[in-house]
Design a protein that fits this description.
The complex is a heterotrimer. Chain A is mainly alpha-helical. Chain A has a single domain, classed as MetI-like (MetI-like fold). Chain A is 75% helix and 1% strand. Chain A is built from twelve helices and two strands, in the order H-E-E-H-H-H-H-H-H-H-H-H-H-H. In chain A, a hairpin with a 7-residue loop joins strand 1 and strand 2. The longest helix of chain A is centred in the first third of the chain and has 34 residues, at 60-93. Chain A starts with a helix and ends with a helix. In chain B, helix 4 (61-68) packs across helix 14 (246-281), helix 8 (144-168) packs parallel to helix 14 and helix 9 packs across helix 10 (185-196). The longest helix of chain B is centred in the C-terminal third of the chain and has 36 residues, at 246-281. Chain C folds into two domains: 28-205 and 371-438, Periplasmic binding protein-like II (D-Maltodextrin-Binding Protein, domain 2); 208-368 and 448-484, Periplasmic binding protein-like II (D-Maltodextrin-Binding Protein, domain 2), CATH 3.40.190.10. In chain C, helix 9 (228-246) packs parallel to helix 11 (288-299), helix 10 crosses helix 11 and helix 10 crosses helix 18. Chain C is 43% helix and 11% strand. Chain C has 19 helices and 14 strands. Chain C is globular. A four-stranded mixed beta sheet of chain C has the order 7-10-6-11. The chains are: A mainly alpha, B mainly alpha, C alpha/beta.
């Protein structure tokens, strides 16, 4: 029996749809349901309507986590953008040994984020790490930087450890965009007297915008929700300086053992990401 | 104008790009390089201040301890099983899904595609609680099955997205002519499209493998014992309770980064293609 | 056909009956079948003593080499009925904090238990930070993967467990006679919010001691401080001296303030020394004078800022490398600091004494009970529960506690162990440690205490980093605590 092309397509999609149903829709429903219940370790489960939402939205720690997450995600995205684009530009110009250089540029991506946290924790450690020692040898500072007992430095340290792993990703996206620009455009511009800076501004930037935006969107979305680096580097401290949304959710689960508020925090995080992403996507498509 | 002209002239020189690239790459690589050095130091040397860069008395002691006297080999094994399991399931499913969405679009297929992308936007941490409740009801906490299922959820949509990009770019006449010659649609897919797209498919498989290998959050929450925990969780073994064993962590880091480093060394071109094919088109 | 159906019926019948028996526990035995008070009363059974002998090679297990060392291999007397109660349980699964290689006494005691009962203890070694989340996962899943959970912070964890019925009450193990064997004010910390005992085998007490560098103190012109107020001044002077003479990276004092539990310990030590408890009418109340002294240690004293990131093992390590003049940490470090491979910077130049008291009141050495313990998973079978309680009964016995103190240097929970001649002769600073242990106080905390402690840690950090005025911080943290209790 020969199926129509349409039906064939539908059948092919079925395994994927099943996965989505089982692993997304069903848990989402559970999540929403739990958020309306008082579901803690010690008291009986009871429907309490919006009380959990009120609690979380009035919780100082939630807003603190939100603020820290915005700073963290913003910092990583911006630095990844700069680093990725710069390296991609250089890689596109290098012709000899380009394969070798590209492979090497991707190496940080091989390291899991948690491990990156450990590595940078060691590098930044004021007692045994090379970062402070290096700066001291250069004469820039006189005593080791207390990276993990200063709130700002701790945040910067976490941002660096995260950025380091994500730069190759951004770099690849930018590179793909760069390579889709036809050479003739540059040559024509040269004939018209443009130097590399101007052609970068007028040709390269506009044409890679799309790829770069997609890369940035993915990077910022991923960073918004990861706690890997912070878990291994600072544990949310000092004085909750690196306390991000993921940590807030974990505290609801393990410290307060309250599944209702944990669900609420998860839902709020989700909405934040969705609205940010849709605003972002709308912005890109509007430009087209 | 004069200043920008000189800068531009400097940047245009071919040698400049090489030099800048080398400098930047050295910086980028330095954490890995120093970690490698640290893994060859003695425990006492890692505690020195000022710190040494090259190991003064290179030793394999850290590797010895990590391989023979720690649970790391088991963790590496666990990571391997979960990553391979996830990759095989994701690849077998997503190949068909992506092909269907690409070549045989039907009325709802645009929505289906959007649904896939949307699941990627949902932060895993939001689903922690419901997943946990479901998995515990199924009795799957602390099993390979659980981790494979969760990682499949994480990687499937992106694999579909990337593969669809490949299949979109595939010359349709090759498929059509083989069907005219009597091939079934599935047969055409398996015998023509797959072999020719092998490079791209391999790339997607590698990326899936790496993402699963690096996954931490679900591994930490859904596993309890050393028998099942992958290496991202197992690395915490060396931290905390007595002292932070920097040399052992460095050796662990080298082991954890190893698959990625290997993949990037030999399959870099394919991976780049795989990651961006979907994006450039889609 | 008839015979086939009959066979099927018989098989089904047998299955149904045995299934019913299994499910209803008919014929099953449990901890209630152990006669804890026979052949002797519990107190007499668990204080049985044996000789201190060289450990033979057959006790080497768990990757720990014990042979050649000395320990007490006999003494504890098993209760009657244990064999029947335990049935054919041959294995118990326990979590352990860190690698067993760091807990030789636990390994020895486990092996002794195995030889006595035939029950093998399987330890799941876990990183400390992941233990509580793991315990919660197992309990929420009602899994029987783990039989006994290691509680690193029983005072903070047991309230949650008892409230959710996530631990098995073990009142049978704690008769009044037994309670007398342990420091009196200590036992509250193992009770749940219902007043019942949930921890049965307290061990590895951490009694805090004040460690110092005599040469530094002499050169800085200070004497060993006896009060908290003196400590603020003394550490400040030592800090100045160290900065000027030894360079940056050397501090007056270090403390593991990165560990919320140890922040709570510091607060408790100071508050108890004023004869004030932490919990009043079921709520956690921070005394303003306590807060002043604690913050003053940083603001006016020589406590290093980097202490904010130190976990429990990092501060003593910094001290051991010779980078600090004072530290307050557990008595187990008396052994560690004697080890020249670990304590490279302080050999022959360190002293230990009671923690400070309060000016005009005294109470040197007082502090909150910090003991580790185990609780039993409520979802395991009755036979396994019996076996688990048997392990608890052994682990808190004289014999096991002697091994803890003698072999590993952990403070023994049982007081009379400190009287043993071998201990008196060979364990360093025995009298000091006994005195400190007796001064520890336990309180029963409400479940929200843990959350409250995290708040205290945060606000302490803010004050130390200069982000907030100490009085304002106290006001705010107390307000937040009052909201959750």
């Amino acid at each position: 029996m020969k199926l129509s092309n349409n039906k064939y397509g539908v059948i092919l999609s079925i395994p994927g749809l099943l996965i989505i149903l089982a692993l997304v829709i069903f848990p989402m429903i559970t999540l929403f349901a739990t958020s309306f219940f008082r579901y803690t370790s010690s008291l009986p489960v009871r429907f309490i309507g919006l009380k959990n939402y009120q609690y979380v939205l009035k919780d100082r720690l939630f807003w603190l986590a939100l603020q820290n997450t915005a700073v963290y995600a913003g910092g990583v995205t911006i630095l990844t953008f700069i680093g990725g684009v710069v390296i991609a530009l250089l890689l596109s110009k290098v012709t000899r040994g380009s394969g070798f250089f590209r492979s090497v540029a991707m190496f940080p991506w091989a390291v899991p984020l948690v491990i990156s946290g450990f590595i940078w924790k060691w590098i930044f450690n004021p007692n045994v790490g090379i970062f402070s020692d290096f700066l001291m040898k250069l004469g820039l500072i006189s005593k080791p930087l207390p990276i993990f007992s200063d709130p700002n430095l701790a945040m910067i340290g976490c941002i660096i450890a995260d950025t380091w792993v994500r730069i190759p990703f951004m770099c690849i996206f930018t590179l793909a965009g760069l390579e889709s620009i036809p050479r003739e455009l540059y040559e024509a511009a040269k004939v018209d007297g443009a130097n590399c800076l101007t052609s970068f501004r007028h040709i390269t930037l506009p044409l890679i915008k799309r790829m770069v935006f997609i890369g940035l969107l993915i990077t910022s979305m991923f960073t918004f929700r990861t706690i890997d680096v912070i878990f291994s580097m600072t544990g949310g401290g000092p004085a909750r300086a690196t306390y991000v949304l993921g940590y807030y959710i974990i505290d609801q689960l393990w410290l307060r053992v309250n599944y209702g508020t944990a669900s609420v925090a998860s839902i709020l995080t989700l909405f934040l990401i969705l609205s940010f992403a849709s605003f972002y996507v709308y912005f890109i498509f509007k430009k087209e | 104008m004069k200043l920008t002209d000189t800068i531009a002239a400097f940047l245009e020189k071919p040698l400049t790009s090489y030099i800048l690239l080398v400098i930047i790459l050295v910086f980028i690589l330095s954490p890995i390089i120093f970690t490698a050095f640290t893994s060859f130091k003695t425990r006492a040397e890692t505690f020195q201040w000022p710190p040494t860069y090259f190991p003064q008395k290179p030793t394999l002691q850290a590797y010895e301890e990590v391989i023979f006297r720690s649970p790391l080999p088991r963790h590496l094994f666990n990571s391997l099983i979960v990553a391979l399991g996830t990759t095989s399931i994701v690849m077998s499913g997503s190949l068909f899904t992506a092909y269907g969405l690409s070549q045989y679009q039907y009325k709802g297929s645009g929505i289906v595609l959007l649904l896939f992308i949307a699941t990627r936007i949902i932060p895993p941490i939001s689903l922690l609680v419901p997943f946990y409740i479901i998995m515990s009801l199924l009795g799957l906490i602390n099993t390979y099955t659980c981790l494979i299922i969760l990682n499949t959820f994480l990687c499937y949509p992106l694999a579909v997205w990337m593969l669809k990009g490949f299949f979109d770019a595939f010359p349709k006449d090759l498929i059509d002519s083989s069907i005219v010659d009597g091939c079934t649609r599935t047969g055409a897919f398996l015998r023509i499209v797959v072999p020719i797209s092998a490079v791209g498919i391999a790339a997607v498989a590698i990326i899936t493998f790496l993402w699963t290998w690096n996954e931490f959050l679900f591994a930490m929450i859904f596993t309890n014992t050393r028998e099942i925990q992958p290496v991202t969780v197992g690395a915490h073994y060396f931290v905390g309770d007595e002292l932070v064993q920097w040399d052992s962590i460095a050796a662990t880091a080298m082991f954890t980064a190893f698959p990625g480093l290997v993949f990037f060394s030999i399959a870099q071109k394919a991976i780049v293609k795989g990651l961006t094919a979907g994006a450039v088109k889609g | 056909m008839f015979p086939r159906n009959l066979k099927l019926l018989v098989v089904m019948g047998i299955c149904t009956i045995s299934f019913t028996m299994m499910v209803t526990g008919a014929g099953a035995v449990g901890p209630n079948d152990i006669k804890w008070n026979k052949p002797l009363s519990i107190a007499e059974r668990i204080t049985g003593k044996g000789p201190v002998e060289v450990i033979p090679a057959e006790y080497d297990d768990y990757g720990v080499k014990l042979s050649g060392k000395k320990g007490m291999l006999k003494g504890y007397i098993l209760p009657e009925g244990w064999k029947e109660a335990v049935g054919d349980v041959k294995k118990l699964v326990l979590t352990n904090s860190g690698a067993l290689a760091g807990d030789p006494a636990t390994a020895l005691n486990a092996k002794i238990f195995e030889k006595m009962t035939g029950i093998h203890l399987e330890f799941i070694e876990m990183s400390g930070a992941l233990m509580w989340p793991k315990q919660l996962s197992v309990l929420v899943a009602r899994s029987t993967d783990v039989d006994l959970f290691y509680q690193r912070n029983p005072m903070l964890e047991i309230p949650h467990l008892s409230a959710a019925n996530w631990a098995v009450p073990v009142d049978e193990l704690w008769t009044p006679d037994v309670e007398k064997l342990y420091p009196e004010k200590v036992l509250d910390s193992f009770k749940g919010i219902d007043g019942r005992f949930y921890g049965g085998a307290p061990f590895c007490f951490w009694a805090m001691h004040l460690f110092y560098r005599p040469s530094w103190l002499t050169k800085a012109g200070v004497t060993v401080p006896l009060t908290w107020q003196d400590l603020v001044i003394a550490s400040s002077k030592v800090d100045t001296w160290a900065e000027n003479n030894l360079g940056p990276g050397n501090d007056g004092m270090v403390y593991a303030a990165g560990d919320p539990d140890l922040v709570h310990v510091l607060l408790a030590m100071v508050q108890y020394s004023q004869d004030k408890p932490l919990i009043k009418d079921g709520r956690f109340v921070i005394d303003p004078d306590t807060w002043k002294i604690v913050t003053d240690l940083w603001l006016k004293g020589g406590m290093s800022d980097s202490s904010l990131e130190y976990l429990w093992s990092m501060a003593p390590e910094v001290f051991a490398k010779g980078k600090a003049g004072f530290t307050i940490t557990g008595g187990v470090y008396i052994n560690e600091f004697k080890n020249p491979e670990f304590a490279t910077g302080i050999q022959n130049d360190w002293g230990v004494t009671l923690t400070p008291g309060w000016e005009g009141i005294g109470n040197r050495g007082i502090g909150p009970v910090q003991a580790d313990d185990w609780t039993i998973n409520p979802y395991i079978s009755p036979a396994k529960k019996a076996a688990a309680m048997l392990w608890m009964d052994y682990q808190r016995s004289y014999q096991a506690q002697f091994n803890e103190l003698y072999v590993e240097g952990n403070e023994s929970a049982m007081m009379c162990v400190y009287e043993h001649p071998a201990v008196k002769n060979e364990v360093a600073y025995v009298d000091l440690r006994r005195e400190t242990l007796e001064a520890q106080i336990g309180e029963s905390y409400p479940p929200a205490m843990w959350e409250a402690i995290e708040m205290v840690k945060e606000y302490l950090g803010r004050v130390v980093l200069g982000e907030m005025d100490p009085d304002k911080a106290l006001e705010q943290v107390q307000a937040e605590i009052n909201m959750i209790m």
